[in-house]
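**Discrete fold encoding**
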Amino acid sequence: MKQINSNTLLELLQNDVRELLLQCTLLQNTDPALLVKQPAEGRWSVAQVLEHLNIYARHYILAIEQKLHLNQTGANDVFTPGWLGNYFTQLMKPLDNNSLKSKMKSPSNAVPSAQPDAQAMLQEFINHQHHLLNLLQIARTANLDYIRVATTLSKLITLKLGDTFRFFIAHEQRHFLQIENTLKALQPFVAHLQVK
């Protein structure tokens, strides 16, 4: 796997999180009726996507924080992605043309409720992103290769801390592409709202 400077990686990831926060600002200014409307039967609303992301954030933010709290490793200059972490990251991350490599079915424990509170889900997501920015900053004093974090799949399946950050943020980027596509699909509904 190609090595990357640890601080460069963390800075790139912080920039990715800041970009997600900018997109959240747009969502805060979106008609609340749009955030809870499903674009088609069986497809998630924006609020449901946000709840799905929050389910993952509740696990990974806490798990990362606990590992960093116990950190006794000291920083490493260069991070080498692990094969599993790199695989998961590449599977999740949107391609350069804003498309996805493949569709994926969410595990049953990460499926959102039918009608989540859009404003509450958005605010929770924003709070998680600010927390994540802090954890990325703290991680500058940690060994991104040595510290391992359990995945949501199993406590026995762990990823390097650097890969955990990469995968987790790529998962969020993937679903923000879904949010963008959902809002595009709802454009006829927007026109209907404006006529009323």
Summary: The radius of gyration is 18 Å.
